Amino acid sequence: MNKFAELNSASAAQLFADYCRAQGLNVSAVVQQADFAELYADSAQLPQIEAEFSRFMQQPSHPRYQAAAWQLSQPATLASAPLTKPDLGKLWQQAPLTLLLLVLCLLVYGWQQLDWRASSAALQLTEPAQLWRWFTPVLLHFSLTHLVFNLAWWFYLGRQLEQRLGAALLINITLSAALVSNAAQYVVVGPNFGGMSGVVYALLGYCWLAGQLNPRQQLNISNGLAGFMLLWLLLGFMDLLWVSMANWAHLGGLVTGLLWAWLLRHRPGRELS
């Protein structure tokens, strides 16, 4: 990636980078502060990107740029892509830890259906002196909806983070988020809880704040999506939802993810092959 421009507006730089990515051009905005940002581009695409940049500078308020940024923030745009059979070999090569934990949760859920009491007795945080129990509640899920929701988010966020930052960092974030979220829920409420949502909130918080502090990692969560998950968290604390929520686990995970993103705010991400 080659630096090709500087702008005195971080929001304008991010808007142009979003537009270019929507056009299939590899552009990253590195925000130094609110009034200074740098733009980097793939050297092979540089002539086309510079032409687009010249057009952007002439009409920065053109609706095409806002439309592209909005499009990138919408998960529904994925529906227009053709469905292809997943390449499990390639997925394993790219994100083995993400797949391994996903499969482990599926196996534990199968065990829960066969022997609910034994699985809960083995994995819930009922014996704090047994140190593994501070981590194992993330493997428990109490309904198929609970399982699918958490694993979908884990796969979406964990795979991105593992590809960009590596399996070692993903496992550190996952274990620390599991420990903090489980401890928060246990101390405030008690041992009768489970699920990976605390870890999911940690990954969500990490990806959102990293997108603000360090665009080089290319882990972007839209403000709208982050706002929705924060609203979900608040509704849980207000007891306005139709399901029982491990609210303190969610909050503990979110804080853990935000802290990791701040600590790693200068770390570059990997380029995907």
UniProtKB/TrEMBL annotation:
Segments passing through the bilayer: 95-114, 134-157, 169-187, 193-211, 223-242, 248-264
Residues annotated as signal peptide: none
GO biological process: proteolysis
Domain of life of the source: Bacteria
Membrane topology of the entry: Multi-pass membrane protein
Keyword Electron transport: no
Compartment annotation: Membrane
Chain ranges of the Peptidase S54 GlpG peptidase N-terminal domain: 1-74
Entry GO CC: membrane
UniProt-recorded name of the protein: GlpG protein
Native source organism of the sequence: Rheinheimera nanhaiensis E407-8
Gene name, Swiss-Prot/TrEMBL: glpG
